[in-house]
Amino acid sequence: MERSTLSRRRGAKAERADDGAASAAAEAEVDVFAGEDDASKQSRLTLMEEVLLLGLKDREGYTSFWNDCISSGLRGCILIELGLRGYIQLEDTGMRRRALGTRKVVMTGKEDRHTGDVLLDEALRHIKTTDPGETVQDWIELLSGETWNPLKLKYQLRNVRERIAKNLVEKGVLTTEKQNFLLFDMTTHPVADPAMKDSVVKKVQDSVLSNWQNEPNRMDKRTLALLYLAHASDVLENAFAPLSDDDYELAMRRVRDLLDADPEVEATKPNASDVLWAVASSFLK
To answer: Residue 60 contacts by C-beta under 8 Å, 6 or more apart in sequence?
Structure first.
């Protein structure tokens, strides 16, 4: 399978000739989360926005019609974003160890403060008002609307991709257009700021190349989460497409190393995010 992927990449090199300038421009970009206190667009991108950016076709302004993974992946992003911001965590089990997948998501006491993001606030309200609580896996399914219980359909977050895209339009990263697809018109969001997307792509590339850490717990949590969720959303390949064949093979090998890590073990290490590893575990099953 790896050989066929590499062969397809070599055969597609001619089609990627126009991407050379954009790739060169990306070299000058800095990490989008380099300054958490900076009010720039870079410091304000959420995990959901970064994953959607990686999945969007630059000129067409929409994700692949064949990608059925990004919906649940974006819900995973929402949970990790809330966890990294300190709004939610997994229930404390005391001295008794329990698997990540069996622990309920609970509030941290910070939930009365707004996150500044409508999607995050909506998800937070659902988690806060649900008693008894649900596990991370349950919440990903509920927020995606994947439930047979009609009483729990109220938890579904609707039009998530469109709402995230509109946030990016407000930040000047995307623009809005209408495209005709024979039988219907569709609102699309082409990239308006290629440098912004290039910086996200470079962040992903550098995390498994020049900035690679041998241990997951030594990596920046947001970057680690982005790698896992981009893979779960089936958009990670888009970030690696411009790489040379050698760098591509190295990047994929290191991604496999991350995917082979045991979330149960990693979650016990110092400064680990239990929500991050619970989400990762739910997608690695």
So the answer is: 179, 188, 190
pLDDT tens digits, one per residue of 17-28: 444 433 333 333
Radius of gyration of the chain (CA): 19
What DSSP line would sit under 158-194, residue for residue? PSHHHHHHHHHHHTTSB--EEEEETTEEEEE--BS-H
Give residue-wise pLDDT tens across range 38-89: 445 444 799 999 999 999 998 888 888 788 899 999 999 999 999 999 999 9
**DSSP-derived 3-state class of residue 89:** strand
Torsion, CA 86, CA 88, CA 92, CA 93, rounded to 10: -130
* Tokens 């979650």 -> residue: 267
Q: Let me know: does 87 contact 159? Beta carbons within 8 Å.
A: no
Look at residues 77, 66, 62 and name the one whose alpha carbon lies nearest to residue 191. Answer: 62
Look-up: residue for tokens 């997948």?
101
The dihedral built from the CA positions of residue 143, 145, 146 and 147, taken in this order, carries a sign that is positive
| pTM: predicted TM-score of the whole model, two decimal places | 0.84
3-class DSSP assignment, residue 94: coil
Instruction: Give yes or no for a contact between 40 and 236, defined as CB atoms under 8 angstroms apart.
Output: no
Can you name the residues that pair with 90 across neighbouring β-strands?
A: 105
State the Cα–Cα distance between residues 182 and 185, nearest whole angstrom: 8
Rounded to the nearest 10°, the torsion over CA 93, 95, 99, 100 is 50
